[in-house]
């Protein structure tokens, strides 16, 4: 690896941006629900507010990607998105009514969700330009998530959950400052070929894969939306919630590193089977534990569940989809993994958590993970234990 390229100032600023932007992810996924709870919202209302994000992302990700492609800039679009986030967060800080927050958060999500696929795009483009592995930059997102999870927990313990939005403004402002120094990249790596959607959806192998991913994502998004509420229910402080987020983010780092360099030694389907089964075990433990510290320990399983799944799923998609349809396939994957699963888990999960409680909630998440396990297992035995690469993608004009 070229030492000169890896020490480029451009890569340094991009790593700083990646590090910081995941701080906003910590806030939205883990601390925004506490802010809503502090305002007196019910868990079903919180679930609905959470579900709005994935619903909006179905449209916003596509629209901002098209804008990025049309004007051949990622950096300027990211600047607009961050400024929009800061403005909407300021309005949220002064809002207390559920109807007003619902309206404002809808617009906020329009600026929030596209930041991550676009930041991944600029990371992939920059890494390719400098001849390095994109994980060497993306890992700083995991480091940032861990750092801000702990820092935000301590800060909110001191100043209270009512100041969550001001903390969000500060972190988004920091990310905005870093992106100013990042070199813009053309969008050729992530252009979305809409004509390829039909070609992709005709492939049974991909439809099976997306179906399994959807089932697994339901359980993970349910946990993501309500883990902070579960911890609060068990008497945890914002500080302990930060430690739980820290445990999950730190645990994925060694798994990312190992599988990025040695993952090709292992076949994909067995890894996906392992990840699905461990997800089911993780959700079972989350449902039966009665201790906030127990949840803290269980969160350390995040690395061997999400870490294994994430790297292996991306690797499998690169085998399933040729270069000319890869961005389209990745966009569909994001819709399945994040948008559709988040929409269902937020609306359905919020009502379930409120009406039935935490135990049935996590048992349902476990059931979804087991359905994914069965789906991956059926494909594994159908193809044979020796199979690794999926069937070849065929496109007919």
Secondary structure topology:
Blueprint lengths: L2 H4 L2 H30 L4 H29 L3 H19 L4 H15 L2 H16 L4 H25 L4 H16 L16 H6 L2 H30 L4 H25 L5 H21 L3 H7 L3 H19 L2 H34 L1 H26 L14
Helix pairs in contact: 2-6, 2-7, 2-8, 2-10, 3-5, 3-15, 4-5, 4-6, 4-8, 7-11, 10-12, 10-15, 10-16, 11-13, 11-14, 12-14, 12-16, 15-16
Supply the key terms:
single chain; 397 residues; mainly alpha; 2 domains; 81% helix; disordered N terminus; disordered C terminus; HcaT-like; transmembrane; transport; lactose binding
Brief sketch in words of this structure:
The protein has helices at 3-6, 9-38, 43-71, 75-93, 98-112, 115-130, 135-159, 164-179, 196-201, 204-233, 238-262, 268-288, 292-298, 302-320, 323-356, 358-383. The chain is mainly alpha-helical and 397 residues long.
Structure description:
This is MFS transporter. GO terms for molecular function: lactose binding; lactose:proton symporter activity. Keywords: Cell inner membrane, Cell membrane, Membrane, Transmembrane, Transmembrane helix, Transport. This protein has two domains: about 1-190, Up-down Bundle (Growth Hormone, Chain: A); about 190-395, Growth Hormone, Chain: A. About 80% of the residues lie in helices and about 0% in strands. It has 16 helices and no strands. Helix 12 (about 270-290) runs antiparallel to helix 14. It is globular. The termini are far apart.
Q: What is the CATH superfamily classification of the largest domain?
A: MFS general substrate transporter like domains
The ordered string of helix (H) and strand (E) elements is HHHHHHHHHHHHHHHH
Mind telling me the C-alpha Rg? 20 Å
Tell me the count of domains.
2
The assigned structural class equals: mainly alpha
Stretches where pLDDT falls below 50 for ≥5 residues? Answer: 1-5, 389-397
Total helical segments: 16
> Would you give the CATH topology of the largest domain?
Growth Hormone, Chain: A
Please tell me the overall pLDDT: 83
- What CATH architecture of the largest domain would you give? Up-down Bundle
* Counted beta strands: 0
The profile of the biggest β sheet is: none
Euclidean distance between termini CA atoms? 40 Å
Helicity, as a percent range: over 70%
Shape estimate: globular
Q: Strand content of the residues, in percent? A: under 5%
What is the CATH level 1 assignment of the largest domain? Mainly Alpha
Organism: Paenibacillus mellifer
Membrane topology: Multi-pass membrane protein
GO cellular component, one term: plasma membrane
Keywords: Cell inner membrane, Cell membrane, Membrane, Transmembrane, Transmembrane helix, Transport
């Amino acid at each position: 690896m070229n030492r000169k390229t890896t020490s480029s100032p451009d890569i340094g600023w991009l790593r700083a941006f990646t590090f910081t932007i995941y701080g906003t992810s910590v806030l939205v996924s883990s601390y925004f629900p506490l802010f809503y709870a502090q305002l007196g919202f019910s868990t079903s209302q919180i679930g609905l507010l959470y579900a709005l994000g994935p619903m909006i992302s179905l449209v916003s990700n596509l629209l901002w990607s098209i804008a990025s492609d049309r004007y051949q800039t990622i950096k300027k679009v990211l600047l607009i998105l961050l400024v929009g986030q800061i403005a909407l967060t300021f309005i949220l800080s002064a809002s207390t009514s559920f109807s007003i927050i619902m309206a404002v958060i809808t617009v906020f999500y329009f600026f929030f969700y596209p930041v991550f696929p676009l930041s991944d795009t600029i990371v992939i483009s920059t890494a390719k330009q400098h001849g390095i592995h994109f994980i060497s930059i993306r890992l700083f997102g995991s480091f940032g998530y861990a750092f801000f999870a702990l820092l935000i927990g301590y800060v909110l313990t001191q100043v209270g959950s009512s100041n969550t939005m001001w903390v969000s403004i500060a972190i988004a402002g920091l990310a905005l400052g870093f992106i100013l120094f990042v070199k813009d990249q053309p969008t050729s790596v992530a252009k979305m070929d809409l004509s390829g959607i039909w070609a992709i959806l005709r492939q049974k192998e991909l439809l099976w894969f997306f179906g399994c991913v959807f089932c697994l994502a339901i359980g993970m998004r349910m946990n993501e939306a309500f883990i902070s509420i579960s911890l609060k229910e068990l008497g945890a402080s914002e500080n302990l919630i930060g430690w739980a987020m820290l445990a999950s983010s730190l645990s994925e780092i060694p798994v990312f590193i190992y599988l990025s360099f040695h993952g090709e030694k292992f076949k994909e389907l067995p890894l996906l089977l392992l990840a699905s089964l461990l997800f089911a075990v993780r959700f079972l433990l989350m449902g039966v534990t009665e201790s906030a510290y127990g949840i803290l320990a269980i969160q350390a399983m995040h690395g061997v569940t999400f870490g294994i799944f994430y790297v292996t799923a991306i690797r499998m998609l690169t085998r399933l989809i040729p270069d000319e349809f890869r961005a389209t396939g990745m966009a569909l994957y994001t819709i399945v993994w994040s948008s559709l699963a988040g929409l269902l888990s937020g609306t359905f999960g919020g009502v379930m958590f409120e009406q039935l409680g935490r135990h049935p909630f996590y048992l349902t998440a476990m059931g979804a993970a087991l359905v994914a396990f069965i789906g991956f297992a059926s494909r594994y035995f159908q193809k044979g234990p020796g199979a690794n690469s999926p069937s070849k993608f065929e496109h007919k004009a």
